[in-house]
Amino acid sequence: MISVEGLTVEFAAKPLFENVNYVINPHDRIALVGKNGAGKSTMLKLLCGLQKPSSGTVSIPNECKIGYLPQVMKLQDDTSVREETRKAFSESVMLKAKLDKMQRELAERTDYESEGYTKLVDNFTQEHERYIMLGGENYEAEMERTLSGLGFSRADLERPTKEFSGGWRMRIELAKILLKKPDVLLLDEPTNHLDIESIQWLEQFLATSSSAVVLVSHDRAFINNVTNRTIEITCRHIEDYRVKYDEYLVLRKERREQQLRAYQNQQKEIADIEAFINRFRYQASKAVQVQQRIRQLEKIVPIEVDEVDNSVMHLKFPPCLRSGDYPVICQDVRKDYDKNVFADVNLTIKRGEKVAFVGKNGEGKSTLVKCIMGQIPFEGTLKIGHNVQIGYFAQNQAQMLDESLTIYETIDQVATGDIRLMINDLLGAFMFGGEISEKKVGVLSGGERSRLAMIKLLLEPVNLLILDEPTNHLDIPSKEVLKEAIKSFDGTAIIVSHDREFLDGLVSKVYEFGNGRVKEHLGGIYDWLSSLQVTSAVNAFKSDVPTVEDRLAMSSSNTIKQSASSEKITNPAKEASRLSYAEHKELQKKIRKAEKAVKESENKIAEMEKRIKELDEMLMSPENATNMSIINEYAEIKERLDAENDNWFILSEKLAELQ
User: Fold this and answer.
1) Which helix (H) or strand (E) holds 467?
2) Where along the chain do its domains lie?
């Protein structure tokens, strides 16, 4: 599909890549990995044509469509979410307008036997077939399904994009790229602005997509779930491993051990040859042998050992004072802005616990953190335990640093006492040693800023850590170091994060934020995911206009959840214990009536969807392309189907309320 041959890229006469060769095949799912600065983002730009190589070629067939999502991009702010996303279907929209114009012309003309009319009919038929192949009839539903998967509600679709944060607008751009259905998807850190549910939806989307994928990401779980091939950029060339990321780590370790052994053997051989030359250089009787050794030495090709970035930060939280047994207790906590964010929050966090706050963006995780910090008012009771000292890492902590200061000055301003004598050691432990400490904060990368903000957190001993998205911009090795530091921390920790691999094995309790409520789940992050049956994102995010098959799956899922749930009484038989016999009998009657209404609605929808498929096949044939009776019937059934879908939602909600 895409062929890379002899690729060389140089910056200031220093090569980034040299003579790189590989091919991207259809259905490849490639993880592009390498240490920071190896050139991963540059490689994506080369593949999509935004950057030219110093030499070599990137061959892309003319018919090959490429979708590229950079880490940072210019965003539009003058349209609604729906209008902006609809731009992905610009070809379908223009084609629809062209078809409408041709259809009006066919209806107005009466020269049925003329050559021009026949040509117009043929042209209409061809364009209509192309419109159907582009999915022109279903793009609105597909658009809503994709935006829903990425976390947007139906109400959000009519809101102006300027009302959303940069992260949410990046989701719109991601939706547009996915909806264009390119042959090759180039994604640079696509999970940076996604929550766990949206990440899982994206995993499922990519798994079922026909597009090839080239991915740069620091989310280890996401890489493992999406990719089947790993390309490592190392020593100015690439190593191609046709395995997932975890398997690649094992193979790379074995490969490097083999290289080290070969390198050591070669160095011993070189040393022996040089020793022979130096020993017998001036003896005439050994002149021939010396010359042979010199030629042998010249022919040796030095073995290169793959680079391993061992410059990881060394993080250990200082010992902390003992706090009270319950650092945080919430009783009936409620927070409202223009609308209710959450209500009836009741939770108790014990000393030493490591807990996670999870849920979709905008459901109140950071808001509750601000309530705990005392930064915003709230209703209800929120008690901070005895002798609790809070250390807070805000989601935008890295952006709050003064860009005019150097790294050293940033820490020197907040360091006190004996710590001021240890600033250089502290900076060195976080990979800011030597001349790097004199760099201005304004030129640092996102990961470097996050590390610098973490140093400030360490300067005061605390016994309650509150970390809001601490892994944003951190690479995988730095995440592992931070994770181990939190695990060994002898205080309490609240972690707001969407990184499953980071939370796995770290937290023992999960608080789920959603629909204005906060639910407690005992166990780790994957225990929570299993309980919600969202390991397959298909079950978690259905289209706003589901098919009959979707409805059956949802009904089955709901039945399982109802029977398995011990937290809620959703079974009418259990509810009956609280009701009188007459009330119970009336409730059962209403439930049966509601179930019957839902079933009848599903049957009607199934019949209409079947008829629409039949009409689609009829309209594909040239003789029916201008048959107005078929076209009118098609439009009428589509209108009735939309109305019945709305009716199904109302009936289903009514049934859910009764249950």
Assistant:
1) strand 464-468
2) 81-166, 328-536, 545-658
Answer yes or no: are the C-beta atoms of 215 and 183 closer than 8 Å: no
Most confident of the following: 99-113, 284-298, 626-640:
284-298
Element (H, E) at 423: helix 423-429
Render 88-104 in DSSP notation, one character per residue.
GGHHHHHHHHHHHHHHH
Q: Is the pLDDT of residue 83 over 50?
A: yes
If one counts every other C-beta atom within 10 angstroms of the C-beta of residue 86, the result is 18
**Which stretch of 205-214, 302-311, 523-532 has the lowest confidence by average pLDDT?**
302-311
Alpha-carbon distances of 501 from 85, 190, 531, rounded to whole Å: 31, 16, 18
Question: Rounded CA gap, 72 and 497, in Å?
Answer: 21
Within 510-658, where are the H helices? 525-532, 537-540, 548-564, 572-575, 581-620, 628-658
As given in the structure block, the two tokens for residue 203 are 């995993």
Integer Cα distance of 369 and 392 in angstroms: 9
Domain topology for 328-536:
Rossmann fold (3.40.50)
The pLDDT score that the predictor gives to residue 520 is 92
Please enumerate in sequence order all residues whose Cβ is within 8 A of that of 555, keeping only pairs 6 or more positions apart, or say none: none
Q: Bridge-partner residues for 59, per DSSP?
A: 3
Angle between helical axes of 115-133 and 90-108 (0-180°, round to 10): 150
- Residue 375's alpha-carbon distances to 371, 393, 508, in angstroms, are 6, 14, 27
| 3-class state of residue 196 by DSSP | helix
Dihedral sign for Cα 275, 276, 277, 280, please.
Answer: positive
**Sign of the dihedral through C-alpha 127, 128, 130, 134:** positive
Question: Could you tell me the two tokens for 142?
Answer: 């597909």
Residues 6 or more apart whose Cβ sits within 8 Å of residue 632 = none
User: How many CA atoms are closer than 13 Å to the CA of 525, on its beta-carbon side?
Assistant: 22
Question: CA gyration radius for the chain?
Answer: 31
Q: Give per-residue pLDDT as tens, 405-455.
A: 888 888 888 777 666 777 777 787 777 877 888 888 887 766 677 778 888
Query: Given the structure tokens 């009701």, which residue do they identify?
Result: 579
Minimum mean pLDDT range among 134-143, 181-190, 245-254, 598-607: 134-143
N-to-C CA span, the chain: 53
Residue 94: pLDDT over 90: no
Contacts of 60 (CB under 8 A, 6+ apart): 2, 49, 66
Which tokens go with 317? 């939280």
Full DSSP string of 285-298: GGHHHHHHHHHHHH
Contact between residue 341 and residue 335 where contact means Cβ atoms under 8 Å apart: yes
Q: Hey, CA dihedral for 45, 48, 52, 56, is it positive or negative?
A: positive
The DSSP code sequence of 316-367 is: -PPP-----S-SEEEEEEEEESSSEEEEEEEEEE-TT-EEEEEESTTSSHHH
Question: What is the predicted pLDDT for the residue at 230?
Answer: 94
Give the burial string for 431-457 (b: 16+ CB within 10 Å, else e). bbeeebbeeebeebebbbbbbbbbbbb
Mean pLDDT value of segment 618-646: 74
Q: Which two tokens stand for residue 177?
A: 């790229």
